[in-house]
Amino acid sequence: MMHMASWAPDIGLAVLLSGLEVAALVLFCFLEGLKQWATKGWAVPGRTRRSILALGLGAASSALIGFGLSGADLPVARASQSVMALLLALLLILVAGHEGYDRFCTYRFRSRRARPGCRGPVGGAPHRSAPDPHHLVGRGSAPDTRHDSRCKRCQ
User: Fold this and answer.
1) Selected residue with higher pLDDT from 48 and 6
2) Is residue 127 part of a domain?
3) pTM score
4) Which of 96, 97, 64 has the alpha carbon at shortest distance from 82?
5) Measured by CB atoms within 10 angstroms of the end CB, which terminus of the chain is less buried, N or C?
């Protein structure tokens, strides 16, 4: 059984390490927001890459610190570092998953536009809504009757 005097450094270290990690994450987000503000809302190159790197390093360092604290007989600090590592890893999965989904959709959109015979945009409005350049011949407004069987929009 641990005495109250031995719990104080454990709880203090847990609060200190968790506070430093949260402060570092808040500072990182603030700096990334400052970069976004400086570009007046335009995309900042490499933002996702930096976010993935920061979250990955944060999760790995928290896990290593928690592993190191297990030998020092500091259960509260070890548990807090394990929880921080888990939260940072979940945040990393969300950021990387969103980026992967965006890249997948971009690749799919580009590969559909590159198909021969399909000249119009793929996503967006339904097939028969407004006059679509996909079904117009030249500059006129007469619908094109020569549809390509490979085009998903013409089926």
Assistant:
1) 48
2) no
3) 0.62
4) 64
5) N
